[in-house]
Design goal:
Elements lengths: L1 H10 L5 H17 L2
Length: about 35
């Protein structure tokens, strides 16, 4: 899971930051509710 966060941080350098943030938040929520 930590590796996923690091990868997401690296992906923030991509042009589609807004869409990426939406996906990132969704992943965090999924991880939270499934924990």
């Amino acid at each position: 899971y930590l590796a996923l966060m690091i990868r997401d941080d690296y992906a923030l350098s991509e042009p589609t930051v807004t869409e990426h943030l939406k996906t990132r938040i969704k992943h965090y929520k999924d991880a939270y509710y499934n924990s």
